[in-house]
Specification:
Strand order of the largest sheet: 1-4-3-2-5-8-7-6
Structural class: alpha+beta
Number of helices: 20
Low-confidence stretches: 85-129, 134-146
Shape: globular
Number of strands: 21
Largest sheet: 8 strands, mixed
Radius of gyration: 27 Å
C-alpha cells in the first residue's frame, strides 16, 4: 500500500503540470460568447491578433506566463457561459486571493542549489512585520502605478535605506529599519521587511530582496563612504580584514566571489525551499552607473526607490550593473533545471529544462572564441575568428554627388533597441558545435561558416553587409548564419569551405525579448510616447519625453543598457592587468558565456540595418553618409526625417525602409546637423553618427 508521502508526491506532481486548456474550438466559443474580439483579447494578453487566432485553431499554444493568464480567463468565461446550456456553477463566496503578477521576477544566483519541486509549504508562524508609514518625508514627485502585490512580499522587491533608519520601498511606503550593522540589516531584511519578488518562471526561484544604501546609511553601518583604489572601480572591494567583512563572517554569513563591493551579495546556504540571500547596492560606491542610470544616484531615496521599483517590476530586481541584470534575466526566464521524477526511485530530482542553456559551461568553436581563450591558445588555432560586430562605417567622400552636397542638413535616425529587435524569434544553438568540411549551406542552422564573399559586387554608396567597417571582404572569412543567409537573399551563391554547427537549436532569447520589449514600450507610453501617435506627433512627443518625467527617463535608459549590456556579457573578456593568455577567467564558468549567441544577435541586427538601407536607396534614391551601430545619418532637404522618409500616396509609411515609432526596430530622430559639418567630419575620417549620438557605446562586454 502506498505511503502518505508517496501519495502526496504524486498529487503534487499533478499540480506541478502545465495548466490544461480547453480544446481550440471551445476557446473560440467562449470568447465569442463573451462578445470579445480576437484583437481585443490580443491586447489583453499582450500578443498579436494572429497569435490569438493560432490559439483558437490549434496551430500554437501559449507559454508561461501568458498560459496561466489565458487559462484564468477561459475558466472565468466557462463559468459564465457553459456549453450546451448547462447551468453555470455558483461562484464561491470567499475573499479574493491576491494574484501573483507576471511582472515579478526571479534571479538565480551562483550559490543557489538546483531547482526543487514545489511539494507543499508547511504552515509557519508569521513574523512580526515592521509598521509601514504610508508616506515619505521626502515623497517622490510622481508615483508609478502600483503592481499587484505578492502576499509574501507586501512591500515590494527593494528598499532604499537612509542614515536615519528609514527604508523607502515602492509605492511611497517607508519602513523603520533598526539595524546598526550589516548582519543586523541582513536579518531584518529576511525576517521582517516583507521585501522580495516572486519567481518569473515556474521552474525558477523567488528573487532576493535588494537593499540600496545611501552614503549616510553606509557610514552608519560601518562602511567607508567611498571605495577608493588604483584598480578599476568595478573590481574594488573591501579587504578581507575590514571590520564589516569580519562581522559578516562571524555571524555565519558568506559573500560571493565578488566580495564586499558596490554590489555585495550576502547569503547562507538555502535550507530546503527557503533561500537566505540579500543583495546590497551602495550608492556612494558608484553602484548605479551614470551612463545606465542617469541622475538616479543624486535623487532623494523615495525617488530612487520609485525608479528601481519600476525597473524591478518590468525587467528584474537589479543585482549588479545593467549588463549583469540583462544576463541574469536570460537565466531567470529560462532556468537551467526543473524538477523531474526518477522513474526508478520515484524521487524528485533536478533535471534539464528544455530550451535552456543547462547548468554546465560549453566551449565555443575556435573561430567563435576570443584570441586569449584556452580553446584557441591550447590548440594553436590560426584559422581566423568571427568578426560579427555592429556597423562603424563612414561613406567615402568621393561617392557624394553634387546634388547630395547641396542638401542643407544631415539627419540622424536611431533604431529603437535594434539588438533587442534582432533577438526576436532568433534561433540559436543549444548544444556543442560540431565540425563539418564543405557543408551545404542551410540558413536554418545556427553556427559559424567559413566562406569567400569577396567576389560580391555591391554599391559603394552603401556599406558592405558582410563586415563591421562596411568594406568589401578580401578573402575567405568566418560568418554567422544570418550574414551568409543575407548574401543568399541578395542573389549570390554561397559555398562554405567548412563550418561549426549546432544540432540542437531553439529560440532561447524569445522570453527575454518579449519582457524587455514590453518594458520598453510600456515605459515610453507612460512618458507620453504611445503607439497610436502619427509620425509628426511621435517626433513631437520624443522631443520632450525625457523632460516629462526624469525618473521614467532613467528607467528607459536602464532598459536600453540592459539590452546592450546583456548581449555584450555573452562574450565577456578577461579583466585585470595580471591576466595571461590561455588562462581561464570567471566568466567562462557560466553557461551563458556564449559568444556564438552574441554573434547571432549582432549579425542579424547588422543585416536588418543593411536591408533597410538598401530598400531606402531603391525607394528614395537616398544613400547614407555614415552608420554607427543602430544610428544612420542621411542627407536631407529639411530638419525632419519626414522630409526624406518614403510615404505612400495615402500618407502611410512605405514598408521595408525606415519607419518612425516607439516599437523596437523602428526609428526615432537622433539629431540634426548641417551637411557641411557632416562632410567635414567625413573628410577627416570621422563618423558623423558618432557625434550625433554623443559617442554611444556599441556593445558593453564589461561589468
Amino acid at each position: 500500500m502506498a505511503s502518505e508521502e508517496e501519495l502526496f508526491a504524486n498529487i503534487d506532481a499533478l499540480l506541478a503540470e502545465e495548466p490544461q486548456l480547453p480544446p481550440p474550438a471551445e476557446r473560440a466559443r467562449l470568447r465569442e460568447a463573451a462578445g470579445i474580439t480576437q484583437a481585443r483579447l490580443a491586447v489583453a494578453l499582450k500578443t498579436s491578433t494572429q497569435t490569438v487566432k493560432n490559439y483558437e485553431n490549434g496551430r500554437s499554444e501559449p507559454k508561461p506566463p501568458r498560459l496561466e493568464a489565458y487559462q484564468r480567463l477561459l475558466n472565468g468565461w466557462a463559468a459564465k457561459y457553459p456549453a450546451h446550456g448547462a447551468p453555470a456553477a455558483p461562484a464561491p463566496v470567499a475573499a479574493p486571493q491576491p494574484q501573483v503578477p507576471e511582472t515579478f521576477t526571479r534571479v538565480p544566483t551562483v550559490e543557489q542549489d538546483v531547482a526543487e519541486p514545489d511539494i507543499g509549504t508547511a504552515v509557519q508562524p508569521v513574523p512580526e512585520r515592521p509598521v509601514a508609514r504610508p508616506t515619505s518625508r521626502r515623497p517622490a514627485a510622481k508615483k508609478a502605478a502600483a503592481p499587484a502585490t505578492d502576499p509574501r512580499f507586501p512591500h515590494g522587491p527593494l528598499a532604499v535605506l537612509d542614515g536615519d533608519g528609514s527604508a523607502y520601498a515602492v509605492g511611497g511606503v517607508v519602513l523603520d529599519c533598526p539595524a546598526t550593522t550589516v548582519p543586523e540589516l541582513v536579518e531584518w531584511t529576511l525576517r521582517e521587511s516583507g521585501l522580495g519578488a516572486a519567481k518569473l518562471n515556474r521552474y525558477g526561484k523567488d528573487s532576493d530582496p535588494l537593499i540600496v544604501l545611501t552614503a549616510a546609511a553606509a557610514v552608519k553601518l560601518g562602511l567607508p563612504e567611498r571605495l577608493e583604489g588604483h584598480e578599476q572601480r568595478r573590481s574594488l572591494r573591501l579587504p578581507e580584514d575590514h571590520p564589516v567583512v569580519k562581522q559578516v563572517a562571524k555571524a555565519k554569513w558568506q559573500l560571493t566571489q565578488r566580495g564586499f563591493g558596490p554590489w555585495a551579495r550576502i547569503y547562507r546556504k538555502a535550507q530546503g525551499r527557503d533561500r537566505q540571500c540579500v543583495q546590497l547596492a551602495i550608492l556612494s560606491w558608484d553602484a548605479l552607473d551614470e551612463r545606465s542610470w542617469p541622475g538616479v544616484a543624486e535623487m532623494e531615496p523615495a525617488d530612487i526607490a520609485r525608479v528601481l521599483g519600476v525597473y524591478a517590476q518590468r525587467v528584474i530586481t537589479p543585482r549588479g550593473s545593467t549588463a549583469v541584470s540583462g544576463l541574469e534575466l536570460m537565466t531567470a526566464l529560462r532556468p537551467p533545471t526543473k524538477a523531474v521524477q526518477d522513474p526508478e526511485t520515484g524521487n524528485w530530482v533536478s533535471g534539464y529544462n528544455a530550451g535552456s542553456l543547462g547548468t554546465e559551461p560549453m566551449d565555443p568553436a575556435p573561430p567563435e572564441a576570443t584570441p586569449e581563450h584556452p580553446v584557441v591558445v591550447n590548440s594553436g588555432w590560426t584559422g581566423g575568428f568571427l568578426n560579427e560586430e555592429a556597423y562603424q562605417w563612414v561613406r567615402s567622400v568621393e561617392t557624394l554627388s553634387d546634388e547630395e552636397c547641396t542638401l542643407p542638413y544631415a539627419v540622424g535616425l536611431d533604431l529603437n533597441t535594434a539588438f533587442l529587435a534582432a533577438a526576436a524569434r532568433l534561433v540559436v544553438g543549444l548544444s556543442a558545435p560540431d565540425h563539418f568540411h564543405a557543408p551545404k549551406f542551410n540558413p536554418k542552422i545556427p553556427g559559424s561558416w567559413l566562406a569567400d564573399l569577396s567576389h560580391i559586387e555591391l554599391d559603394p554608396r552603401l556599406p558592405s553587409p558582410f563586415t563591421p567597417d562596411g568594406t568589401r571582404p578580401t578573402g575567405p572569412a568566418w560568418y554567422q548564419t544570418h550574414t551568409l543567409a543575407y548574401a543568399q537573399e541578395l542573389g549570390h551563391d554561397v559555398h562554405p569551405i567548412e563550418a561549426y554547427l549546432r544540432r540542437e537549436t531553439g529560440a532561447y532569447l524569445d522570453p527575454w525579448h518579449d519582457r524587455l520589449k514590453t518594458a520598453y514600450v510600456d515605459t515610453l507610453a507612460d512618458m507620453g510616447v504611445t503607439k497610436d501617435l502619427d509620425d509628426r506627433q511621435f517626433l513631437a512627443a520624443m522631443a520632450q519625453h525625457k523632460q516629462n518625467d526624469p525618473a521614467l527617463a532613467a528607467v528607459l535608459s536602464a532598459i536600453k543598457a540592459t539590452v546592450k549590456g546583456g548581449v555584450g556579457k555573452l562574450r565577456e573578456r578577461p579583466q585585470g592587468k595580471h591576466y595571461n593568455e590561455g588562462e581561464t577567467w570567471p566568466a567562462l564558468s557560466r553557461p551563458t558565456w556564449r559568444p556564438d549567441i552574441r554573434a547571432a544577435v549582432i549579425s542579424k541586427a547588422r543585416v536588418n540595418m543593411h536591408r533597410k538601407l538598401n530598400n531606402m536607396a531603391k525607394m528614395t534614391g537616398l544613400y547614407p553618409l555614415a552608420v554607427l551601430s543602430d544610428c544612420v545619418v542621411y542627407p536631407s532637404p529639411g530638419e525632419s526625417p519626414l522630409d526624406f522618409l518614403p510615404y505612400a500616396a495615402s500618407g502611410k509609411p512605405q514598408p521595408g525602409g525606415f519607419r518612425l515609432g516607439p516599437t523596437p526596430g523602428l526609428a526615432k530622430l537622433e539629431g540634426v546637423q548641417s551637411m557641411l559639418w557632416a562632410v567635414d567630419l567625413m573628410e577627416k575620417g570621422l563618423n558623423p553618427a558618432r557625434h550625433i549620438k554623443g559617442g554611444d557605446a556599441v556593445m558593453d562586454e564589461g561589468e
